Amino acid sequence: MLLDMEMPAGLCGVDEAGRGPLAGAVYAAAVMLDPARPIAGLNDSKKLSEKARERLAFIIRSESLAWAVAYATVEEIDRLNILQATMLAMQRAVAGLKARPQAVWVDGNRCPDWDYPSRAIVEGDAKVAAISAASILAKTARDAAMRELHARYPQYNFAGHKGYGTAAHLKAIRQHGPCPEHRQSFSPVKQMLAQGVLF
Q1: Domain span including residue 183
Q2: pTM of the prediction?
Q3: CA 180 vs CA 82, 156, 183, 199: distances in Å
Q4: d(Cα 132, Cα 114) in Å, to the nearest integer?
Q5: Which of 28, 43, 108, 162 has the greatest CB tally within 10 Å of its CB?
Q6: Per the structure, how many domains does the chain have?
């Protein structure tokens, strides 16, 4: 699970959820695990069942030294682009921690612009426990938000596909048009709007 290196003291792991979907906010989480209370079963959230993610999310929130979840809105995604909106969500998550980290390791190949000693780790959510924990919190928080959107816009079945561009989701957009939670800068939503398919 862990990289072949010593974990720095005060390490914060950061990961995001929801860069690829056609709808909904992009979420990020920051987690500082307690070295004295290791959590068994941490892994890349995509490799865990929904039940396992929910169970681990409860433990992470209960036993971590500090954690925070944040997001960037659909409007911010469309205005800034998805990469910059993701960086913004990560910045907000780390800023929301109740303790200041001594180092921040981020899943992926780049870090936000901040004043923490940082490292970007490709596939870090499968290699570093704190990043795995962050991926779980980001994923479960976003899934919960998509279930709330499903209640508001049941015609799109957001609870099922979580906003990703599945065939059923694309069919629903063509049938009903995009809703305010669809990312207008993303194809094929952008293409449908250009063709006159309105909210």
Answers
A1: 154-194
A2: 0.94
A3: 17, 12, 8, 7
A4: 21
A5: 28
A6: 2
